[in-house]
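[Meeting: bench + compute handoff]

Bench side (C.D.) handed over the final construct sequence. Compute side (W.E.) agreed to return the predicted structure before the next meeting so the bench team could plan truncations. Sequence as handed over:
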Amino acid sequence: MTKKILIEGMSCGHCVNHVKEALGELNGVTSVDVSLDDKTAVLEGSVDVNDEDIKAAIDDVGYEVVGIEVL
């Protein structure tokens, strides 16, 4: 399972790290790649990670999910 998340509010490398750490802590996530330029995160997981859990994790670190796409 691979998902691409569109994120608003990231402006620096620290933002990228916060998002990467938050998503990496979700159950079932095996890898996370965050792009500041594209304002996206691509996560891969061994199971289907719930979209609400993704939104909550990103919201908890201060950013906003504007879209989630299954790749």
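W.E. noted at the follow-up: The chain has a mean pLDDT of 95. C.D. will use this when planning the next construct.
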